[in-house]
Amino acid sequence: MRKPPTIDDVALALGMHKSTVSKALSDKGNISHATKVRVREAARELGYEPNPLAQRLANGYRNPMVYIFSGTLDVGVATQKIRLIQQELNAASLEVPIYTCPESGGGAAAQQRSQAAQIKQLCRQRPRAIVCAVQMVGEDVFSELAAYQREGGIVVSYDTPIPLECDQVVFDREDNAYRASKHLLEWGHRKIGIGMSRTSLPLLLDPAAAGLPQSGRMRGFRRALDEFGVPLRAEWFFENAPYEEGGEEMARRFLSLEDRPTGLCIVNDYVAFAFMVDVMKAGVRVPGDVSIVAHDNQRIASRCPVPMTSATHPVEQIAQSVVAMLLDRIEGYDGPPRTETVRGELVVRGSAAPPSDDRPS
User: Fold this and answer.
1) Cross-strand bridge partners of residue 266
2) pLDDT, tens digit, for every residue of 271-322?
3) Are 173 and 160 in contact (CB under 8 A)?
4) Which label site among 229, 271, 311, 354 has the fewest CB atoms less than 10 Å from its CB?
């Protein structure tokens, strides 16, 4: 197989130095128009095509590449946000490839090392900017991004706060869980549980909450309980697999309890949907025996057997804010790092009501 021509072949054919050919092709340096024309015609005749990675490295941080790096892809809001950000940046004439790190079999520590190695490799390619979706991203990634910033790259992150001086769009998960929990408490529920998905990266444990994970969702849940003087019961914390599998898992555990909560906050509409279907098959009434408030307000929420009350995840607002911050930086804004906090709302449907004992006859 014939090897593709290189820049050395173009230089040899013209009797020029390689650096002259390179400058003529990249439109850099003090090269005459006639020389540029000769070099480009020779390159075309030889079939030479510049290496895009080499061009990006030569152009430094002035190239049109923006990388999106994500700790996860899913069938829900995480991928929706990435898709919207990519579309908006493509419309601004930027090239936007997406990178994610597959889960490794070596546990959380190995996953973090794998992520750090991947982001280091991406930073070495010197894209104009990196958009980091920080959900399920380990801390080692942030030191690599800090080094990339020091060399002139732009970083914008979104989802949860990170220890990096960069523009950030933060989704207030604590407020979401607080609104959902408070809705049940205002209906009169005092036996309330919460369902959350397991993650591949470790959560900090809160020793004041019987070893339960310390996260924004849990802080919001506990804040609502504290306001109403309702104790936290560890046996009503359901940690599940993601999506429908997690709902099935949660339903099995719920049905096995002798003392069941009358109200549940369930993170993720798909988990809540599968949970609802399985407990209703077992004869549990929704909302008669258990009220449910889900999270994200995806389309499935309104199409459940009982339309689901759900705390929204403002996907479009997050994506638009990320794009606006990034384009500001590309266009020359060099002010201090900015943080925008985005909050959802509660969409009330039929899956939550007062506890059955409190209903008027």
Assistant:
1) 195, 294
2) 999 999 999 999 999 999 999 999 999 999 999 999 999 999 999 999 999 9
3) yes
4) 229
